[in-house]
Amino acid sequence: MDHSHYYVPEPSRWPLVGSVGLFTLVLGFACLLNGLATLGSLAMAAGLLIFVVMLFGWFGTVVAESMGGKYNAQVDLSFRWGMVWFIASEVMFFAAFFGALFYARYFSVPWLGGFGAKGIAHEVLWPSFVAAWPLLALPDASNFTIAREGMEAFGVPAINTAILLSSGATVTWAHWGLKQGRRRQTIVGLAATVALGLLFMALQAHEYWDAYTLRNLRLSSGIYGSTFFMLTGFHGAHVTIGAIMLSAILVRAIRGHFTADRHFAFEAVSWYWHFVDVVWLALFVFVYVL
User: Dihedral, CA atoms, 265, 266, 271, 276, nearest 10 degrees?
Assistant: First the structure.
């Protein structure tokens, strides 16, 4: 086969299938929000099923192309740049939520408490307000869910920090094994990383149960509740996606799809997983500790 030209795949039906699945999923969610529970639930289930079928079909096609030797060095480089820019977009995604948290904590809340350049807002808007974080005292209990207390750092969050740091070490260990041709080390390292990711998600689910039942902390609990659940929730979604991708890579490693010289799929997922680790470290410090 001539590898001197950039590989251009044949026209694919999978983007159309994925678009139909996502449209059906969002349409079902819209129905659910407007009181059409049965129709909405069915549409969301159908959309999710179509989307999952698209993932299996499209990714299977890409794997077959890779195993068929259709990707040359130029294609490999384009894949790497694509992953770099994808992670860059994810950095901007989380930066928006961290920015909202910082603005609330270091600007809005002090201003409402009478401090800073716009401290006059204290007398005009909310004279009885006391600036504190986590912000639990809210102006109108009828419009907000009043939380009893904030989340603690040195409990489940600290354990989850240790778990994610350990998972970063295990995926790196698996990568070393792959580069040195140690297939067993690769498989064991990947399996350990998936297990740690699943343990993280289980503990976060327990933390959410604690937040809802014992602390009465909800998404509707003002700026503290909304920033807490948006940041931890989206991070948890990324951990879930990462665990799914690592599981797929584990299956491919067991089937012998990777070599010491050709394993970009493994590297891409490991980059993503390390990104998730770094985001959690920032989240642990700025959401839980400070």
Answer: 110
Answer whether 201's CB lies under 8 Å from 241's CB.
Answer: no
Residues 6+ apart with CB under 8 A from 77: none
pLDDT in tens, 82-92: 999 999 999 99
pLDDT in tens, 191-209: 999 999 999 999 999 999 9
Q: Count Cβ atoms below 10 Å from residue 13 Cβ, excluding itself.
A: 11
Cα dist. 194→161, 183, 245 in Å? Answer: 15, 17, 9
Question: pLDDT value at position 76?
Answer: 86
Question: Which residue ranges make up each domain of the chain?
Answer: 1-71, 72-98+149-289
Domain 1-71 has CATH 1.10.287.70: yes
Q: What is the pTM of this model?
A: 0.86
Q: What is the CATH number of domain 72-98+149-289?
A: 1.20.120.80
